[in-house]
Amino acid sequence: xxxxxxxxxxxxxxxxxxxxxxxxxxxxxxxxxxxxxxxxxxxxxxxxxxxxxxxxxxxxxxxxxxxxxxxxxxxxxxxxxxxxxxxxxxxxxxxxxxxxxxxxxxxxxxxxxxxxxxxxxxxxxxxxxxxxxxxxxxxxxxxxxxxxxxxxxxxxxxxxxxxxxxxxxxxxxxxxxxxxxxxxxxxxxxxxxxxxx
Length: 197
Fold this sequence. Notes:
Helix content is 32%, strand content 15%. The protein is of the alpha/beta class. The longest helix has 14 residues, at 10-23.
């Protein structure tokens, strides 16, 4: 990667820092969608054969992220509005909520920047954490297994192509830097009963 291209990615770092400042998280890892934020977080948390608890009524991408990460699913009748935890992991699906000071310590909180969400960038997601090791793993995993500055030629780390493009981060940085209030809650969005699929 050229020096010019590396400089372009500095805007992703700046957007992540702005999200940390806004939400109260120590670290933020920006990715290309909330579904992929959930997937990466679930891969990090995976215990082979583990049973994951999901509410019957949620977005289908959550189910697919869990399946693709290797989990078996147990359905619950949990009623949720803004966010919920994917038990027994520390992963939180917060696609429907972003607010100042929202970060709950000890979690991997996943955000969505879909066009229909509060921070509408068209596409994108992020993982908030306070775990040093999780942060380092997630940064590499989203970038094809490459550590910052690594060309990837000899990458042996498990990796995925899920980084946030700089133009998306630039838009997010511009919007976030002008927020002086918490965004309005999203209207109710009924989800189908995925346990019937």
